[in-house]
Amino acid sequence: MKLLIEHERADLSFNEDTNTIELVWKKFQNEEVYKMMFTKGIEHLQELGATGWLSDIRKEGVVGPATSTWLQTEIIPKAIAFGLSKIAVVMDKDVFKDFYVKGIEKTVGTCTMKYFDSTEEANKWLKQDLIQVF
Question: Which helix (H) or strand (E) holds 5?
Fold first, then answer.
């Protein structure tokens, strides 16, 4: 695992084993940090040729409608154009998070998006069907 950005609110990493960008929230996000982490994450996704994205949103807090719309209209289409094919979301049950991820799910198009209770389960799924080149 290669740490790309360490921030007090979230960490952004590249997991070589799953060819995935991982965004793990450590505390409630705010709009500025949210947009910065996703923007940088997509830049790294393109640069590293990552095909997966893992978001651990258990500590993310509530994402406002305008910010969620920005993710759906700006970031996800770019990520898919850069080769994103799998999105794993680690979350706990919460009505606000359910609403948030269902909105995102409508925009993922050709991507496959699944939900997990743990990062271990998410990484196991992300690693499936991954072709290792040696």
Answer: strand 2-6
Domain count, the chain: 1
Residue of 59, 55, 9, 2 whose CA lies nearest to 36: 9
**53 strand-pairing partners:** 21, 87
| Each residue's pLDDT tens digit, 54-108 | 999 999 998 988 999 999 999 999 999 999 999 999 998 876 777 777 777 777 7
CATH number of 52's domain: 3.30.750.24
Phi-psi region of 68 (alpha: psi -120 to 50; beta: other; left: phi over 0): alpha
In-domain check, residue 8: yes
- Single pTM value for the model: 0.89
Is position 112 within any domain? Answer: yes
